[in-house]
C-alpha cells in the first residue's frame, strides 16, 4: 500500500491528497495549519470518552448509522471476520456527545477580511499577553460565525486591500490553479444566490454566473489535465501491453519492427483507455 505524503502548501496538494484517499483510504498531510495542541486536545477528549461508559449512551442506530460502534461490531464488505476497533460516526443530522466540547459545532467559522495572517492561539495567553483569535466578543474576534454548512468561503480567504483582478479565468479562490475547489465554491455560490464578487467565474462573459460557466470550467479542467506524469512503466504480459503512470500522459510512440512475413489487424476492440 502506497500511502502518499502530501505537503499542504504545495499547489498540487488537493490532487495528491484526493488521489491517496481514493487509492488507499489514507493520506499523510504535512505542513498543515492545524496546531499540534489542538490535535492533542481532541485526541485526549475522545480517548477519555471511549474509556468511559458514557459511550454506551450513544449506541449506533442500525438505520441511520450514527453514534457509537462497539469493538468487533463491523466487518469489511464480503468478509465475516470482525474489525478490531471501536469508533463513532458523526453526521450533521446525527447525535453528538454532550461530553465532547462543541464550541464550533454546528457553525462555520470564517476569518475576517481584516485579518491578513494566521494566529496560532485560540484563547489569550495570560503569560505573554498575546491575544487569541477567539477574542472577547464578536467585534474583538478574528472570526465571523455563520450557520452550519455555509460553504461560500471554501478554499479561499478574502483580505482587505487592492483588488488585483482575475489572473486566471475560473480561479475563484485565487490559488493559481483551476480545479474542483473552484467548481465547489461556484456551485455553492449559485445555490445560495451569492455570486456577487465572483467575476472570475464568468467564463463566457455574459455577466451571469450559472451552470454554463461551470460546464466550461469542468471542460477546461478535464481537457488540460493539469498534473503531468513524471514516471511510468510499460508492462507486457499475456499478449497485452499496459501503460501505468502517476499522472497524465499526452501520447506514446511505439516502434514495431518485423520481417516481411508479418500481418497486423486492429479494430476498436483492441484499444482500451482508462
Brief sketch in words of this structure:
The protein has helices at residues 13-24, 36-50, 180-191, 211-224; strands at 5-7, 28-30, 67-69, 87-89, 107-111, 143-147, 232-237, 240-245. It has 274 residues and is α+β, with helices and mostly antiparallel strands. The strands form four sheets. The protein has a two-stranded parallel ribbon with strand order 1-2.
- Choose one word for the global shape: extended
If you compute it from the alpha carbons, what radius of gyration comes out, rounded to the nearest whole angstrom? 25 Å
| Tally of helical segments | 4
- In angstroms, what separates the terminal alpha carbons? 21 Å
- Mean pLDDT, all residues: 77
Largest sheet: 2 strands, parallel
Largest sheet strand order:
1-2
- The percent range for helix content is 10-25%
The oligomeric state of the chains shown is: single chain
Give the amount of beta strand, in percent.
5-15%
Structural class: alpha+beta
Low-confidence stretches: none
Number of strands: 8
Order of helices and strands: EHEHEEEEHHEE
Q: What topology emerges from the helices and strands here?
A:
Blueprint: E1 5-7, H1 13-24, E2 28-30, H2 36-50, E3 67-69, E4 87-89, E5 107-111, E6 143-147, H3 180-191, H4 211-224, E7 232-237, E8 240-245
Parallel strand pairs: 1-2
Antiparallel strand pairs: 3-4, 5-6, 7-8
Helix pairs in contact: 3-4
Characterization of this structure:
By secondary structure, this protein is α+β, with helices and mostly antiparallel strands. It has helices spanning 13-24, 36-50, 180-191, 211-224, and strands spanning 5-7, 28-30, 67-69, 87-89, 107-111, 143-147, 232-237, 240-245. It has a domain at 232-270. Strand 7 (232-237) and strand 8 (240-245) form a beta hairpin. 7% of the residues are buried.
